[in-house]
Amino acid sequence: MKETNSLLLPRRNENPEFGSGSVFFVGNATVLIRYAGFTILTDPNFLHAGDHVHLGYGLTSVRRTDPAVEIDDLPSLDFVLLSHLHGDHFDRVAERKLNKATPILSTRHATSYLDKVGFTRTHPLKTWEAIEVRKGKATLNLTAMPGTHGPGPLGAVLPPVMGSMLDFADGEGGTRLRMYISGDTLIHDRLREIPRRFPDVDLALLHLGGTRVLGIMVTMDAEQGVEAMRIVDPRTAIPIHYNDYEAFKSPLDDFKQAVNEASLEDRVHYMSHGDTYEFEVPGVGTGV
User: Fold this and answer.
1) Taking 90 as the threshold, does the pLDDT of residue 157 lie above it?
2) Handedness of CA 36, 145, 118, 25 (dihedral sign)
3) How do beta strands 138-145 and 203-207 pair?
4) C-alpha torsion sign, points 197, 200, 202, 205
5) Where would one find coiled-coil regions in this protein (predicted)?
6) In a domain, 102, yes or no
7) Would 32 be classed as within a structural domain?
8) Is the model's pLDDT at 2 over the cut of 50?
9) Beta-strand pair 20-27/276-280
10) If you average pLDDT over residues 245-254, what whole number do you get?
11) What is the predicted pLDDT for the residue at 57?
């Protein structure tokens, strides 16, 4: 489909609420973000405990948890933000039940597949490429962040992955909230470019789990999660993507211990499935 660096949402949004917002944790890397009149779903995964997810090359993993809500119970979505095309991030339930006209922002690898299965409003992004999403009197400038899903040769056979930086702006163009979502990435050199281009991150959602494929780690474990916090330097970090699949080998308790050892516990908010994190944004440049 035709590429565009802007997305105009048809729903009204004349008086967006910039003072507060929320993150609802569905499970795995699936969250529902509500802020400034936007409703955004990330990495839709609605399989249940005991279901198998296919990771490619004949590899599977069993889900240990249930999603906090069913896909049919979601509110109206403005768009879906998909870090990459993997079965535990965009599953067969999402492919079957999501409205095919729902805008989806993701990697070109993912959008090429989604186009083929009938989704009509996909927007591929390359690393550091931005898209302006406008809804009434609020604007979201979303930029694809660098990510690498596997080391060396393994990275070449895993799906390309992107993180995301979400800058929510008011009608005057002032950024009111800056949110980083890591995607399924390991620590790598390009992450260090993020704070140079995007300082003052208010909130970061970190994909953890220490996922291992053929014994090789392909998502951040506890120690890498703490390093990501030090690199991106968010005011508040929320760990997600942990404990949900058998392939996850670094439990949340390991991250909690590493955070405490790094004396960063005052900058982390922990969520269980079904929890909502409500945050306040009193003014431009203030933290959450």
Assistant:
1) no
2) negative
3) unpaired
4) positive
5) none
6) yes
7) yes
8) no
9) antiparallel
10) 96
11) 61
* The two three-digit tokens of residue 5, written as one number: 């660096």
Residue 133 within a domain: yes
User: What mean pLDDT is predicted for residues 57-66?
Assistant: 86
Considering only CA atoms, which of 276, 287, 284 is closest in space to residue 25?
276
| Residue 166: how many other CB atoms lie within 10 Å | 23
Residue 288 lies in a domain: no
Taking each continuous run of H as one helix and of E as one strand, the counts in the chain are 6, 18
Q: Which of 135, 134, 166, 161 is nearest to 148 (CA)?
A: 161
Please check the confidence at residue 285 and state whether its pLDDT lies above 50: no
Count the domains in the chain. Answer: 1
For residue 81, the domain's CATH number is 3.60.15.10
What is the three-state SS of 55-108?
EECCEEEEECCCCCCCHHHCCCCCEEECCCCCCCCCCHHHHHHCCCCCCEEECH
Residues 240 and 134: their CA atoms lie apart, in Å, by: 27
Answer whether residue 58 shows pLDDT above 70. Answer: no
In the three-class reduction of DSSP (H, G, I as helix; E, B as strand; rest coil), residue 9 is classed as coil
pTM greater than 0.85: yes
